[in-house]
Design brief:
Blueprint (H helix, E strand, L loop, with lengths): L5 H22 L4 H13 L1 H25 L14 H24 L1 H11 L14 H18 L3 H19 L6 H8 L5 H7 L17 H6 L25 H6 L9
Amino acid sequence: MSFQSPSSQVFLFLGTFCSLWCVEYFFQESSKKNKIHHAGPNLLFIFTALPVQLCVSVGVVFVSYWCTRHNWGFLNFISHSEKPWVKYVVGFLFLDLMDYLYHVLMHKIKVFWRFHKVHHTDDLVDVSTTLREHPGETFVRVSFLCLFVFLSGASIPLLILRQSIQTISNLIAHTQLRLPVKIEKTLGILLVTPHIHSIHHHDVLPYTDSNYGDVLSIWDRMFGTYRDLDRSEICHGLDIIRPEQASGFKNLIKIPFLAITRR
């Protein structure tokens, strides 16, 4: 779901989402009935987060257009006459680093964490968990993107490229599917894999506050926030949220406004 080229981005998201969910449904050993029941509340977040994303994303488009027209942002100082790919690589790395920073802030700043913890309450992480984003967090996330675009001067084509890769990466990272250990470790040197992100969804600290990477895992390794944990030890959810508080869509929407003693 994105502000750029809406139809193609929506089809990319839906196509990837449905494909991964069906693979999980038919090839995982978990109860089929439970999986459908679990997906229900997560799917409802489409109707709250998407309108917010579309409205605020108008600002992202405006900022990108203004920066391109006025040559504002550090990317516009990179000459692309001979090697146009350089600007795309630098821009992609910058935006991915900024998404890492944004994710850290969502955990460390209390008012942001109140909204972000809704995403972490899911105790059965699968591809539908990608949708589990409180509209308050959606507003914060896209607002940060406006700032990142303003600083960098990222063009619309760069944002389309970034969003396409990010969409596929985020959906795969939340899937229940697991790669063979050797392949997982090799890809994990550079990319966020399902296992790496699954650790981020572990229910207790310090693992909840680790593995913040969006597409690339290199930022966690560079800044010391990378952690590993055996698959058999991972337990999803949040230890600070009671099960009844995270049951049903209405209760999930209320979570940011509940009094939580920890954090």
